[in-house]
Write a structure and sequence with these properties.
CATH superfamily of the largest domain: Vaccinia Virus protein VP39
CATH architecture of the largest domain: 3-Layer(aba) Sandwich
Helix content: 25-40%
Number of strands: 9
Number of helices: 11
CATH topology of the largest domain: Rossmann fold
Radius of gyration: 22 Å
Strand order of the largest sheet: 4-3-2-5-6-9-7
Strand content: 15-25%
Largest sheet: 7 strands, mixed
Order of helices and strands: HEHEHEHEEHEHHEEEHHHH
Length: 293
């Protein structure tokens, strides 16, 4: 595998990114994959290397890996950066992970629920690159934790369900998650991953999506939490016309709301999923304080 100049070389000789080696490790440590935890192990070394490469790591970078599992991605990341903090929730998998990484000094294994971790303890200056194969049930909450809490990472490079990646990167037909992600980051769908690249194979394909975290939110509003609450409230009526929805949310009535939208250059008959970020900014600044108060 191509090494970046100055990257850390691990001493690991075990590569679990293959079905035979993974099966041996899991048998040895009496581990059965848990669907309840969204455990799908990557068994395609070529795909694993593409995932590691997509993170865009340099030799001085630090990485926070969510759900390290058996360590297939962990060892590939360690070859490309200075330090990897590998978090794994399943205590039965941690011995597998430790055997795979061996005595590689640049990898720190943390047995914990990622949602309970304070990243400040590991990256007090922020600027880390977050990587990992993210279970579907954790995606939304984890993204909020990573993007809305200071100090923030500079990049997220995540394997998620393909449908999730497509929502995050959507240019039309936006969802609430589209607005939330694109307000705080610039997302890019790097490549798709077939279900067959995992054991056990998930029911749907996955994708590697890269989010470059913005220095400042893409919208200029006085209260970002209030902004997201307004957007969320509007999306609860995504099939309704915006004039009626904002009239209901703000208490102004649909006629007044439609008139205010016209002043903003927004057709009151549009649906929430058609608005761009600049339009949402304008809507919040016109309706947000009333909707929140």
């Amino acid at each position: 595998m191509r090494q970046r100049p100055g990257a850390v070389h691990t001493d690991a000789v075990i590569d679990p990114a293959g079905p035979d080696e993974l099966a041996r490790l899991l048998r040895k440590h009496h581990v059965e994959p848990k669907r309840s935890l969204g455990q799908n192990f990557l068994i395609d070394a070529a795909v694993r290397d593409r995932v590691a490469e997509a993170a865009g790591l340099g030799s001085d970078d630090e990485t926070f890996e969510v759900g390290a599992g058996a360590g297939a991605l962990t060892v590939a990341l360690a070859r490309r950066c200075r330090r990897v903090v590998a978090v794994e929730f399943d205590r039965h998998l941690v011995p597998v992970l430790r055997e795979v990484i061996g005595s590689t000094a640049s990898i720190q294994v943390v047995e914990s629920d990622v949602m309970r971790l304070d990243l400040f303890d590991y990256f007090p200056s922020g600027g880390e690159v977050v990587t990992g194969n993210i279970p579907y049930h954790l995606t939304g909450a984890l993204l909020r934790k990573l993007l809305e809490t200071e100090p923030r990472p500079r990049r997220l490079s995540l394997v998620v369900q393909r449908e999730v990646a497509e929502r995050w990167t959507a240019t039309t037909g936006a969802s609430l998650s589209t607005i939330a992600v694109q307000t705080l980051a610039i997302p890019r769908l790097a490549f798709t991953i077939p279900a067959s690249a995992f054991i056990p194979a998930p029911k749907v394909d996955s994708a590697c999506v890269v989010l470059e975290v913005r220095n400042q939110p893409a919208v200029r509003v006085d209260d970002l939490d209030s902004f997201f609450r307004l957007v969320e409230a509007a999306f609860q009526f995504r099939r309704k016309q915006l004039g009626g929805t904002l009239g209901r949310i703000s208490g102004q009535g649909s006629t007044t709301a439609a008139a205010r939208l016209r002043e903003l250059g927004i057709d009151a008959q549009r649906r929430p999923q058609t608005l761009t970020l600049p339009e949402w900014e304008a809507v919040y600044n016109a309706f947000g304080r009333r909707a929140d108060g």
